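TL;DR need structure tokens for one chain.
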Amino acid sequence: MTAAKEIVPKHDRERGSLLIILAIVIPVVLGALGLVIDNAHLFKAKHDLQSAADAAVIAAAHELRRQNVKGFAAAAIEDARLNGATEDKGAVIHVNYPPKKGRWAGSKEHVEVIVEREVPTFFMRALGKHKVEIEARAVAGLVDRNVGIYALAPKASSALEVAKGASIEVADCEVFVNSSSKKAAVTHGSGKIDAERIEIVGGYEGSGFFPKPVTGAMQISDPLEELGEPSTGGCDYYDTVTVRGTKNLKPGVYCGGIDVVDNGKAVFAPGVYVLKGGGLRVGKQCDPPDEEVAKDDGDSDGKSKKDDGDSDGSSKVKKDDGDSDGSSKAKKDDGDSDGSSKAKKDDGDSDGSSKAKKDDGDSDGSSKAKDDGDSDGKSKDDGDSDGKAKKDDGDSDG
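>> reply
TL;DR here they are.
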């Protein structure tokens, strides 16, 4: 008689192998998951550390731009700490000037910041890795800027000001205004500043800026503060040098300053200009000539260089072709004058005390003259004369 065999289900026979597989796979999955989590944590820590290094190196570069060679490292460390690289997190900050490694090693135009710290792990501890050291490195360089005009006043309003009609052109150079005032730079009317770039710490007012200024710049110290005051010697130009039209200027010591007026154009030759007095003044463009400017074709009560008509006032002229009532100095007077005047030639009537080399009209006053007619005085007179004159050919009552 044959014994019956026990039948065992197939899945019961596989239970043991599944447990073996799970025992092998689960640690691997957990280990991989742990590595992912730890790596994500390290990546975040490295990103934060890099941000701190970037901020630190920019702060250091700004201080070097200000020529702050003593404080740039402290500024870098301070900014790194403000961005999370603190001692309680185990951060160590290195500031190297010039950089010690990389393509810019040894360059005095660059600064390097390296931030290091140890980051604790989570799942990697199972593999005996409790901490991982990470490092962030950043390098910043100083760009060679071609600044033509520095307005260094740190707080002044209108630290740079351009009057109506005046123009400042800085070819292929920048203009930098160091003032933090809301109106650090101002243009009036048609006044304008034309430069490659205009950078202002504070704000500006006016429409005469070309190109539009960049505001919010970092303040700088005097770029030449480390240089001693130069020995200037004596004055090369004692009086104020006034520029009208186009005038070429040479380097030297200007003790009376330089004035650019009447829409003049000053061309500065390369060199050092020392303004010991008066400074540099750029005036506005003049209006067209009228009664009170360079040429006077009518009645005027003022001062003028040329007077072709009647004038009532104190005036200094080179030529007077009309009547003048006042005290005047002239090389030639072709018109009537009532007042005290000095002239080389008087071709018209004069009422007053006058001294002249030639008087073509009659003179009534005390005179030393050649008189071709009747004379009451000490003179030789060609007409009636009572005055002092060398020659009087016309009538004069004085």
